[in-house]
Amino acid sequence: MPTILFYLFALIMIGGGIGVVALKNPVSSALSMIVSFIGLAALFVGLNAYFVGILQILVYTGAVMVLFLFIIMLLDLKKEEEKQFSSSSIAAGVVIPTLLVLQLIAVFQTSDFGNFQAITPESLAMSEQQLDPSIPADSVIRSSMAAENLADRKLPDVNLIGHKLFNEYNLPLQIIAVLLLVATVGCVALSKKLKAKS
Fold it and tell me: How far is it, in rounded angstroms, from Cα 37 to Cα 25?
């Protein structure tokens, strides 16, 4: 990805994130989050993670944000009134982002970016040798990464992500699905109570 495009999409993503916090109208905040997600998806595509970029658009920008907008419209949220913030909330608003920045600095200092290798047929074959032994020898993952013909070697994004999600992160995935269901049911229950009172 050209550097100018990287900075452009990064600015779009950061601008959308700032809009989520700065805008007081909940629908405007949700639309700003969509803009931020689109910038993030463009960055993924620029890093050759096409599948993750498409998932970012389909799952987050499409499904999750439609769910958020649905909940916002059901609850009929009004514009938030002006209120004075306590000193403890202001202190938390300064301390927490500072800790996040310090953590990011520590991560960047410990990361060795000099050893980054481009995805080539040779590097795919080397990576295939270091795969988890539980992946069968005749699996799509191994055959894609170590094909006999160099031109046929490719990174099987869908298979690798699916293997990681459903083997190592299956329980958190199910918990997130239940949480989304509970949030939707709770929103419908709250909207019915509000309509009954009015």
Answer: 19
